[in-house]
Amino acid sequence: MAWSLQTAPELSDLQFEQWNKLLEARTGVQVSAHQRGFLQIQLSRRMRELGIKHYTQYYGQVSAGMQGMVEWSILVDRLVVKETSFFRHRESIEFVRRFLQNRINNQSLDDSFEVWSLGCATGEEPYSLSMVINDCFELAGLEPYHGITATDISQPALQHAREGVYVKRKLEPVAPDERARYFKIVDEERETYRVIDKLRDRVCFSHGNVMKVSEMPLVKMDIIFCQNVLIYFRRWRRREILNELAARLKPGGILMIGLGEVVDWTHPKLQRVADERVQAYVHI
Ligand SMILES: C[S@@+](CC[C@H](N)C(=O)[O-])C[C@H]1O[C@@H](n2cnc3c(N)ncnc32)[C@H](O)[C@@H]1O
Fold first, then answer.
1. Of 257, 158, 171, which is closest to residue 203 (Cα–Cα)?
2. CATH assignment, 5-79
3. Where's the CheR-type methyltransferase domain (predicted)?
4. What order do you get walking across the sheet with 249-257 strand by strand?
5. Could you tell me where in the chain the CATH 3.40.50.150 domains are found?
6. Does position 4 have pLDDT exceeding 70, yes or no?
């Protein structure tokens, strides 16, 4: 049924604050005052589906034990921004290509090459990384163990990512030769394409909350890629999370964030890479 803002019950100041606090405590994401309408729409749309009339009643439901967690996992998907694209920041992805190419040239590869994409949304980011990594290894005629771990808080986004199917429009940022090598058409009429199995097999998608990095059982990483996630967080929280990510890097590994996403952070073990096209830090 069509639904509009006019029919949504008004979210009071107190309720806005209450929901915002819950969202921030659980995800780190803050909803600013001008996004209040968005919060109101998403909450009331879900309440309508459940036949709930009052925000307070729904709040009680979402906060209540295991049952609440199930409902929360549905709601959170609707409250976070999942905008993404292939090669969203081409310079960062090309930086990864140069980094790996150098390692191959210097014969300084480890037994494994591990990459982590945090806040991977519907998969475009980890698949873009997977394309350039595959390019490098294919060119060098190498097939070392390598894998990409891709985590996100949204289960529906992860499901989409695992399927790896995208409409033609989503492939616009992908160069023609990359398209030809890394995608297969699945439906001519709908113009949908699937990422080839060789890449999909390398990416492991799993549920993970950036707020709980320390609880994630991951190996040390060569590349940690975290873009367009921390921008929704308070500055002190961004720094805390980056400190945790720094501890997950191998010596010589790279932490890559979105350009300008964090301005006032340094770490004793990390050095900012002298390339103004990207915001990358190397573990010394
Ligand atoms: C704007 S998208 C960015 C996607 C991709 N990194 C990019 O740059 O294109 C932000 C993603 O972060 C995820 N996210 C938000 N809060 C999160 C959290 N606390 N833990 C894990 N993922 C989170 C959202 O579900 C969403 O998929």
1. 158
2. 1.10.155.10
3. 4-284
4. 203-207, 145-152, 112-118, 221-226, 249-257, 279-283, 270-272
5. 90-283
6. no
| Atom 13, ligand 1: residue with shortest CA distance | 119
Write the pLDDT tens digit of every residue in 71-109: 999 999 999 999 999 999 999 999 999 999 999 999 999
Which ligand 1 atom is the nearest neighbour of the CA of 29?
16
Neighbour count for residue 175 (Cβ, 10 Å): 13
147 closest CA partner among 199, 95, 93, 86: 199
CA distance 136 to 139: 5
Nearest CA, atom 19, ligand 1: 27
Asked if residue 173 lies in contact with residue 86, where contact means CB atoms within 8 angstroms, the answer is: yes
Query: How many whole angstroms from 161 Cα to the centroid of ligand 1?
Result: 13
- Ligand 1 atom showing the smallest separation from residue 27 Cα: 19
Pocket test for ligand 1, best of 30, 80, 210, 238 (most atoms within 8 A of CB): 80
pLDDT for 216: 84
Residues of the chain with CATH 1.10.155.10: 5-79
The pLDDT score that the predictor gives to residue 125 is 98
Angle at the Cα of 36 from the Cα atoms of 30 and 42, rounded to 5 degrees: 90
Atom of ligand 1 nearest to the CA of 157: 27
Q: Which residues line ligand 1 (CB under 6 A)?
A: 27-29, 80-84, 88, 119, 121, 125, 152-154, 157, 209-211, 227-229
CATH number of 90-283: 3.40.50.150
Name the band, by pLDDT with cuts 50, 70 and 90, for residue 214: confident
